[in-house]
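Continued from yesterday's entry.
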Amino acid sequence: MGTGLFSTDASLSWKELLAETARNLSVDNAELEAKWIIEEVSGITGQGDYLEKAKPIQLDRLNRLIERRLTGEPLQYVLGRWQFRELDMFVDKRVLIPRPETEVLVGYVIEECRNKKVEFETQMDLNVADLGCGSGAIGLSIAAEVEGVSVWCSDISEEAVSVTRANLAGLGMAGQKVSISQGFWFDALPEELLGKFDVIVSNPPYIGNEEELPLEVSEWEPSSSLRAGPLGTENLSFLLRKSIEWLASDGTLFLELSPMQADEMAQEARYLGYREVKLRLDLAEKERVLVAKKPL
């Protein structure tokens, strides 16, 4: 006999397991989460054969995943992967869970990269830096979706860099356009690219140290990837100041931030001399992305 919700000796179909898993998950989207968990364990997708019986080894794994979810561990970590735009990303507790807001950020960056290619009428690759890359979701998506780019992903966390490398391995030919390095922000970039980045993008930690977060976030996701300091704007300000010397003459900076920080950071960008400073909206129509061109 196995331990957990389902006995490994049981003869149960995936349809029965799906229904019972949904009944036992104490979350808002229990039926959907149960479907994702069952698909992960069974390998069944779409209109697959849910009448097939589960094997004991599969029941054992299903029990373990359900138990992890019931402790409050985020579903994305339980599954070990999550969809981000066109990529199936490997994620675990070493990195932040990729979010829809960041998908929108990437959309704006991709739009800018494509516009620059048309504007410059060049065959040369655009240099793109993804700073504080975490899982690599931003930089790898740009590499996968834009032709003619050279992407540098960096993070101060060796663990995050390891996750990015794992995700890079699944990128195929597009991965040849990506370089990954570990270090503190710009320290991880090669000096010969000083003043040559066409795009710099970052989703840095921008939560204040005392700001409250949902328990599923604060107890499971890496604090160093969330909290910036007493103000919450420390990393944003640093990136605004330091990016100036790393951007090419017509280079563009993209920063994800909190809507509550948007006006303050846009004002700081203008004070530093950035041109065409804009605040772009997320899916909830909140100001989530600061876009600014290098000062003249």
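--- second protein ---
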Amino acid sequence: MSACEDTQTLIENRTLDEMSVGDTAEMVRVLAMADIELFAVMSGDMNPAHLDAAYADQTQFHHVIAHGMWGGALISAVLGTRLPGPGTIYTAQSLRFHRPVAIGDTITVRVTVAQIDRDSGRVTLDCQCRNQHDKVVIEGQAEVLAPRIKVRRAATALPMVRMHNPGARFRALVDRARALPPLPTAVVHPCDALSLLGALEAEAAGLIDPFWVGPRAKVLSKAAEIGVSLDPAKIIDAPHSHGSAVAAVALVRAGRAHALMKGKLHTDELLEAVLDRVLGLRTERRLSHVFALDVPHHDRMLFISDGAINIAPDLSTLTDIVQNAIDMARALGIDVPRVALLSAVETVTGKLPSTLLAAAICKMHDRGQITGGLVDGPLAFDNAISPEAVAAKGIVSNVAGRADILVAPNLESANMIAKQLIHLARAEAAGVALGARAPIMLTSRSDSPAARLASAALARLLAAAAPVEAV
């Protein structure tokens, strides 16, 4: 008697009375990296032979291999669900491991009844795992107490498990930025622990070379309070937060600093100095903000603009928002960024002004007034990021379903999209302001250390793509 189904809608056991020597059952599994990661999370076994490709390449196997007991768990699954099945009590197991299992290997697990003691209910089963080349990977024997009561029931629906490595994309950005020289950065009014520690972490990571711009006594006092020391020569004395913003902007204009990092002051106060028509850092572009989001289970990083600066952008401002975001994505290594102009629908209608703006932006892109990326809109949020939604609606687009950049029609919607992804989807977020003569890191008090480092990495890569020159 044999059971070979890989997917069961019903689970049915074989009782002691129904079993005979020679009965078999089997299941087939293909090893994926996600299986290894999930087993490591469940077991706590973080042996680098299973998880670190560079380390595994130096071992005798020269590739990542599965945990040995991954195969043992498959044997347990056959015993518990197929032969004997529900009601089985596992009492002993011996295993011998003959070959490693690599990612992509197809493993057939088979158990065969070898001995039955009907008085005690003990059953001995030969267990074997073979790979796609019919080579024995694992073999051994299991001893169980077989069930005496018949069980036939619907299989329990298992929860969906998705593996996500938090911050992995941000770490890749940090690694790229770290390969460049540290970015001279004016840290504006670093008069609290978070401002100081965030900048010091970015300095330790090799991302920035900080100037501490603020009231000297207050900055030194806060540094002493948290147990860190600062180079006095790098402290630029300023009387208060507004004076700190003005002095930091002056450092950039003089070519001594090539970026700004917000400390303990309001964003408006910093931007007032940046946008000063005489002594600021204005360019021909409007200033705009971009959130960079590493969203779990999404296939690419998402950039959302503008959720922090421009409240209700008109056509001219929206044009700069789009171009700024494209330039940023290109600086981060996306050769042809895809931009989706968001609205509630994907059709142009006079009843929704955002659709008219989107259509105008697309025509400007067609005429070469916006360059460096692909632009489409209006697109609803689902049509921008979901290939399934695009297929269901029959949308033909080189952006829909694959957008890198989401441009919202106003600040409220952009901010809400970003915050929803952060707090509901557990996205990691970083952000910078663009369009000035230097990138601006607008860090928040709620930002994680990873987000602060990622913002510094974004600024470093942006500055490398568009070097700052002194006025």
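The radius of gyration is 30 Å. The domain at 168-465 is CATH 3.40.718.10 (Isopropylmalate Dehydrogenase). Will compare against the first tomorrow.
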